[in-house]
Amino acid sequence: MDIILLTGGARSGKSLRAEVRTRAFPGQPVYIATAEALDQEMGERIAKHRARRGKDWIEREVPLDLVQALIETDGGGARLVDCLTLWLSNLLHAERNWSHEASLLADALARQRSPVVMVTNEVGLGIVPDNALARAFRDAAGILNQTIASVADEVEFVVAGLPMKLK
């Protein structure tokens, strides 16, 4: 099955690229959002993404139970998960075992019948964070990205809206 991971920096064009890739598959696309509108800025960002996608997408808001959402939506159109980095942040905030959840996700992806396109952030290209919490998050995000990339059929790094094929 088609498991596609798109990574890159902030505002690099990952989400738009993911939407294009998801629409290329037959069937009604499913958007699985891991973000929550916890403040006005995030609410505005979510609204812009919704407007850009249009009304033909099925939307699911899934801040934590991503594996269950993938199981429930399998067998239909392609699913777009945006994004794994926010999902990781939500897991850490909820004090869930992110490493175990990442393993469950990798296992679930291997069993999917319908395509899955996932967006994640590459947070390891900048300077070393100046505090332990930020370093722990960077490390967890790097491990999560490696775990999912290992089971993905394709991995792209998006820079300035341009995809570079990694796998």
TrEMBL record:
Keywords, in A-Z order: ATP-binding, Cobalamin biosynthesis, GTP-binding, Kinase, Nucleotide-binding, Nucleotidyltransferase, Transferase
EC primary class: transferase
Family matches, as Pfam families: CobU
The keyword Nucleotidyltransferase belongs to this UniProt entry's keyword annotation: yes
Residues at the catalytic site: 49
GO biological process: cobalamin biosynthetic process
Gene3D superfamilies to which the protein is assigned, alphabetical: P-loop containing nucleotide triphosphate hydrolases (3.40.50.300)
Enzyme Commission identifier(s): 2.7.1.156, 2.7.7.62
Residues annotated for GTP binding in this entry: 8-15, 33-35, 50-53, 61, 82
Pathway(s) the chain acts in: Cofactor biosynthesis; adenosylcobalamin biosynthesis; adenosylcobalamin from cob(II)yrinate a,c-diamide: step 5/7; Cofactor biosynthesis; adenosylcobalamin biosynthesis; adenosylcobalamin from cob(II)yrinate a,c-diamide: step 6/7
Record GO terms (molecular function): adenosylcobinamide kinase activity; ATP binding; cobinamide phosphate guanylyltransferase activity; GTP binding
Reactions this protein catalyses: adenosylcob(III)inamide + ATP = adenosylcob(III)inamide phosphate + ADP + H(+); adenosylcob(III)inamide + GTP = adenosylcob(III)inamide phosphate + GDP + H(+); adenosylcob(III)inamide phosphate + GTP + H(+) = adenosylcob(III)inamide-GDP + diphosphate
Family affiliation: Belongs to the CobU/CobP family.
Function: Catalyzes ATP-dependent phosphorylation of adenosylcobinamide and addition of GMP to adenosylcobinamide phosphate.
Name of the featured protein: Bifunctional adenosylcobalamin biosynthesis protein
Species for this entry: Bradyrhizobium icense
